[in-house]
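User: Can you predict the 3D structure for this chain?
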Amino acid sequence: MLAFTIRRLFEAAIVMLTVALLAFVLFRFVGDPINQMVGQDTSIAEREELRERLGLNDPVLVQFGRFIWNAARYDFGISYQVKRPVTSLIAERFPATFELAITAALFAILLGIPMGVYTGIHRDSWLSKLFLSVSLVGISLPTFLIGILLIYVFAVQLGVLPSFGRGEVVRIGGWTTGLLTASGLKALILPAITLGLFQMTLVTRLVRSQMLEVLRTDYIKFARARGLSDRAVNFGHALKNTLIPVITIIGLQLGAIIAFAIITETVFQWPGMGLMFIQAVQNADIPVMSAYLLLVAFLFVLINLIVDLLYVWIDPRVRIYGREA
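Assistant: Here is the predicted structure, written as C-alpha cells:
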C-alpha cells in the first residue's frame, strides 16, 4: 500500500508540473496584460517600466522557474486587473464554487444511484422508461441550454426561483455560505440542477449497465438458488459489486463538476471561481488564469489519488495487478 501511494504521489507531481508548463506557455498568447493595466495615454517608457517591474522582460526559463516556485508556495502574484493578491480572490470565490459543486454532486449521486438500480432491476416498467428518457435528455442537451430552460420556466414563467446571484450569505470565519439562509438555498437550486443533471444521467446509466451485468453472473444465480430474497440478492450482493467501478466515476466526476462549473456560473452569474476565470480571460489577467488552472488540476489530482486509494482498499486485486505491471 505504501509503495502504491508513493508511486501515485510521484505521478501526481509529474501531472502538476505538466499542467504548470501548459498554463505558462498557453497564457503567454492570450494578449498583452500591460494593455489591460494602463490607459491609452500611458507613455511607452511607463509601459516598459511596468513590464520590467512585473518581470515580463526576463528570460522565459527565469519566468517559468519563478512561476513554479511561487505556485508551490501558493503565491500567484497580483491580479493585473483588480490589483489584489490572487490568493485572496480565490479565497473569496472558492466557497461559492465548492458549495455549488458539492450540492450538484449530491444531487447526481442521491438520484442517479437509485434510478440506476431501479432501471437495472425493473427494465420493462414504465417508470424505468421515464428515468431513461430523463437521462437521455440530460446527456443530449448542453449545460447552458438546460440552464436557460430552467431559468425560463422557474424564474420567468413561474417566478418561484431566482435566475442569478447567490442570494443572501452568512460569513462564518473566513467562509461565506448561503446554505443557512432561505434566499441562499433558493438561489442554489437551479444552478445545482443544471450542473448536476449530466452527472446524474451518467451515474444512472453506469449503475444500470453494471447492475444488468452483475445480475447475469453465476454467483447471483447461485444466491437465488440458495433461496435468498430478491432484496438480499439485489442490494446485498449485486449493488455492492456494482458500486466498485461507480466510485471511480463519481470521484472523477466531482473534479469535472468543479472544472466545468464555468458554464453554469456564467449562465446564472454565480459568484464563483468559474465566473472569475471568464472575467480574467476577457481582461488577459494571466495570474488569475494560471491560478485557476493549477487549482483545478490540483483538485483533479487529489480526488483521483483518493479514489485510487479507496479502490485499492475496496478491491486489493488492484494493488496486485499494479505491482505486476
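The two ends are 15 Å apart (CA to CA). The chain has 14 helices and two strands.
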